[in-house]
Every structure is written in C-alpha cells, then in structure tokens.
Amino acid sequence: MRRKIPESTLPKLNRSQMITPEGFEKLKEELEHLWKVVRPDITAKVSWAASLGDRSENADYHYNKKRLREIDSRVRYLRKCIDDFKVIEYHPNQEGKVMFGAWVEIRNERRGIKKRLRIVGYEELIGNADYISMDSPIAKGLLNKKVGEEAVVTTKIGDIVWVIDKIEYEK
After folding, report:
1. Which of the 8 DSSP states describes residue 94?
2. In terms of Cα–Cα distance, which of 88, 90, 75 is closest to 32?
3. How would you classify the pairing of strands 113-120 and 131-133?
4. Are the folds of 17-87 and 92-168 the same?
5. Which CATH class name applies to 17-87?
6. Which DSSP state fits 124?
C-alpha cells in the first residue's frame, strides 16, 4: 500500500505562474466540462454499479470509483491553477522583442534547423507540439531578444546558437 506524501513536504517546482488568455480559457472549459459533464456521468455509473450488490468483485464499480478519484483530483488541481495563474494579455510594448506569448521563428545555421515556437506557461504545453515553456532553457535564452539577434542556449551537449528570424503576437 502506498502512503500519500503531504503536499507541504514536496519540493516546490520553480514554474512561472503565467498563462496566455487562450490557455486560461481552455483550463476553464476543461474544468466546466469535467464538473458538469464527465463527473455526473461517472457518478451515475458508480451508483449503478454499487446497486448491483457485492462490490468486492465488481469491475465496473472499482474502475469508475478510480476514474471518479482521478476526475476529482484534476478538478481540485484546475481550481487551484485558475486561482493562482496570472493571465498575461498582449501589450504593444512587447512588439519587436521576444516575450511571453510570442510566436518566434528561429534557425540554427550550423545544423540547418528552423523552428517556429510559442512561449507559454507550463499548463499550456499538453497537446501543443510547437509550444515551449516559459521556464525552458530555450525560452530563457530567447527572452528580450530582437529579430536578427542570436540567442545562446546552454544544453548538456553544449551551447546551441539560434538566430531570431521573426517575432509575432496574437492580439
């Protein structure tokens, strides 16, 4: 049996608490969907499975109780996130510089690689292959740079130089 470790003893992850307006709306939509659609459906299934009698060998009951715990955990997490995150709106002062929320086109001439990335908060990464966390080494290297400037990103295999080709913002 696993022991639950109290949250107060877990190390705090050093993540920024910023989120784009689009990311914030997606979190709110996910929370509403879980709370109003998914959770009632699973609760009904648990009630139905429990009404069948002996729960010790009732796979439907055990599976749906586990699913309900997962949903409740995600709902608690989302509620906390929504309260803690700071929504960063676009501001004209950002133009011309790489800042939070920017779409950035970069290239590494030595390796012949080109990428288009968006710098966002960590909660926005799931399902978005071209998004990178504000806290990632590459994002930290790109911040406050302008078109044509080089950003040196230190990695385990050495320094990688990226040249910034384009910066755009969703307004």
Report:
1. G
2. 75
3. parallel
4. no
5. mainly alpha
6. G
CA 102-85-105 angle, 5° bins: 10
Classify domain 92-168 by CATH number. 3.10.50.30
Q: Which 3 state secondary structure label does DSSP give 99?
A: coil
Tokens 């302008």 -> residue: 146
CA–chain centroid gap for 50, Å, is: 36
**Residues contacting residue 94 through CB under 8 Å, at least 6 positions apart:** 101, 102, 169
Look up tokens 């689009």; give the residue.
22
Kindly report the backbone phi and psi dihedral angles of residue 4, in degrees, each rounded to the nearest multiple of 5, phi listed first. Answer: -80, 130
Domain ranges of the chain: 17-87, 92-168
Residues 35-68: tens digit of each pLDDT = 999 999 999 999 988 888 777 778 889 999 999 9
Q: Tokens for 101?
A: 């929320």
Contacts of 45 (CB under 8 A, 6+ apart): 60, 64
Q: What is the pLDDT of residues 11-26, one digit of tens each?
A: 445 677 899 999 999 9
